[in-house]
Amino acid sequence: MRIPKHVGIIPDGNRRWAQNQGMTKEKGYESGLDPGLYAYRQCRDLGVDEVTFYGFTTDNTKRPSYQTEAFTKACVDAANLLINEGAALLVIGNTKSPMFPKELLPYTKRCEPKEGQIKANLLVNYGWHWDLNTLAEAQQVNKNNIQENIQSFDISRLDLIIRWGGRRRLSGFLPVQSIYADFYVVDDYWPAFNENHIPDAFSWYNKQDITLGG
Amino acid sequence: MRIPKHVGIIPDGNRRWAQNQGMTKEKGYESGLDPGLYAYRQCRDLGVDEVTFYGFTTDNTKRPSYQTEAFTKACVDAANLLINEGAALLVIGNTKSPMFPKELLPYTKRCEPKEGQIKANLLVNYGWHWDLNTLAEAQQVNKNNIQENIQSFDISRLDLIIRWGGRRRLSGFLPVQSIYADFYVVDDYWPAFNENHIPDAFSWYNKQDITLGG
């Protein structure tokens, strides 16, 4: 079976899940922590080299503060879970804004992995425009070095993106790395993650052909 | 019903369709011309303001010459069909390469539409890296003006992208304009286009909610 080297995870549907459970919206985020660690472990054990989680975006920070506080805390907790696991964690996002949690500053340089662990990237206060802005400062940009000159240069090309929560859009998720990624949508909300979601996505991915335009 | 303002069309599956019909691969492209004109008219009549067709990319030009000649001819023919219809045609792509057909140079500035017609964009010898390269030359790029400083600045944000041929990936299609687009996949090959495909896609689009990250 052809296993994707790099998997993107868009863990959407936390607020809708919480409302369906009779909770207020912001309560959904902490229920996404266990799925995140499970997903990391499952990808690692299936042979993936790198996993990128969509934490929150600069657009998301326009929401009410009780929500932004809840998803920011969930991102800090997620980073700590991944560090404890021994992942080669990298947190990517706009650190110059007050919305970036200071606790995560040490992880904006990639951590050394423990034996047998893989790369895990967490987008925190990320914006696609912020990511591309550095192209304007680059000395010379050409066909082959765009990836090297964006803020997220240390995140590789995505092979497979899995989005939970039923929506079929990228919502600003790493536009350069997503260019040729196959896009798989799980209708279940992220906190309703189950152990079949990722294997099902991988089975589907295995049936796709890869042409890269050729 | 909520109608998308700007619809992207990825007309994939021409070669697979031709092979299924017992023809050689390159014969599929000309069978995509009638669907293209039908799709333009259908979008226009349903109230869309702008349609963008994915013609061919700089990556596609690495294919054997009998194929590149066939899809280049199909793009020239498609442009002429749209001009005859009276569309506000704009052809976008790297004109400095020999792979760009000279016949289309006059349309790299947007044509004036005839009464009742809409914008039609055709990507010809387009490359996502070529599109983003001009960011490096821009004097000052910020969150709000990335779109204004890319090569495809005259193509607006996409609301809905419809891809024929079953594949679920963007393959370099306008990465900046695709950021928040909803993505709908038709399993039929493009030359097997039928009149229900676009209305079905619009019905699905009508059920999506638009949050733009908020």
Which key features would you list for this structure?
homodimer, 214 residues, alpha/beta, Undecaprenyl pyrophosphate synthetase, six-stranded parallel β-sheet, 6 strands, 27% helix, globular, ditrans,polycis-polyprenyl diphosphate synthase [(2E,6E)-farnesyl diphosphate specific] activity (chains A, B), UPP_synth-like_sf (chains A, B), transferase (chains A, B), UPP_synth-like (chains A, B)
The helix-strand sequence of chain A is EHHEHEEHEEH
CATH class value of chain A: Alpha Beta
- Give the total of domains of chain A: 1
Mean of residue pLDDT values of chain A = 95
Q: Give the overall form of chain A.
A: globular
Rounded to an integer, what's the Rg of chain A over CA atoms? 17 Å
Q: Structural class of the helices, strands and pairings of chain A? A: alpha/beta
- Residue ranges of chain A: pLDDT <50 for 5 or more in a row? none
Instruction: Determine the number of helices of chain A (DSSP H or I, runs of at least 4 residues).
Output: 5
Number of strands of chain A: 6
Q: Which CATH architecture of chain A?
A: 3-Layer(aba) Sandwich
Q: Helix fraction of chain A?
A: 25-40%
Biggest sheet descriptor of chain A: 6 strands, parallel
Oligomeric description of these chains:
homodimer
| Strand residue content of chain A | 15-25%
